[in-house]
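Local shape tokens:
==================
===
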Amino acid sequence: MKTVLANVALLVASLVLALLVGEAGLRLTGYQPGNPLERLINHRDDFLGYRMIPGMHETIPGPGGIYTVDTVDLGFDDGIGFRDDGIARPVDSVFIGDSFVWGYGVELADSLSERFEALTGRDAVNLGMTSWTSPTQYARVLGKYGVPLKPRYVFMEALIDNDFGDLPNFAAWELARTGKSYPEWMTDRVMHYEPDAWSYRIRRFLYDHSALGRLVSDRVQFGLREPDLPGESSVVHVTADGLDLYLDKRQFPASGPDPEQISLFRRALLASQETAARNGIELVVLIVPTKEMVYQDRFPDPAERAKVDWRYTVIRQLLDETGIAYVDLLPPLRAAAAEGQQLYFARDTHWTARGHDLAARELQAFVAAP
């Protein structure tokens, strides 16, 4: 009996030692407990859904490798921070939008606003947000933070992929009156978490306090994952012409236009237009297509190559109806894609540094046109 207990004790001690060594090893490599992106965005804000705070520094595992995010104080008195390099007045333009504007997956110097600033030689301020954002929030960012900077231009993103769906989601979050930030609330909904369950609480504790816990149970998944489903996959892997891309057929909506989403989108556009006009700012909307639209001719199935995304059509119609100026990035992105340029990350929906640079050059050409 004593031999059995001694062996069990030895086994337990060995396991504990192995866990401690693994934990220490992960931390020495820079892999820390908790999700660095969550630390940035899980700060509740009743007006915007979430806010970043100034002075944060995070290293984030992205689709193209580790990248850094630093937040700065742009002079607002409510303790909000943004991912920017600071203001050099006069401010020529502000960029407002979601993770494409924010620069998910790339260093700040490679992001849209910074590339535009480098090309024009005039200060461009990044007021972008990331994770679960919509035109309702963009309009609020413009009114509260864009206007005080007195820019000549405001470049506001219209993302084909998420913006329509996020409009009613954000409205539902406001009605829910939850104590959570909007991104945290949405993550729980999408991932079907039950925050009151003991299993969730244990998992959350291990995730936030142990690098090993985070490694084993990374509860937030960003980017595209090829589904592990029986039968035919919805994902097409493109490797021709030096490209490495995963395209998802499900990015083309099966259902038609949603009246509620369109109404909310129009309301947000009109609010932004009115705010910009009242303050002498030129509003320009930047239409950002999905990766699947840009590389649509790479689908083997002719039916997929012929599909039309209703969201793209509706955004164009709304902008034409309201008279808001816009830059449609679909044609130039498709032209570059036809040349074999890797504009999006392989397994993710966001731009590479090359995609950001192309978009910045299109904006530069727009503002330079007579």
Q: What stands out?
A: The chain is about 45% helix and 15% strand. The chain has two domains: 1-30, 58-162+224-368.
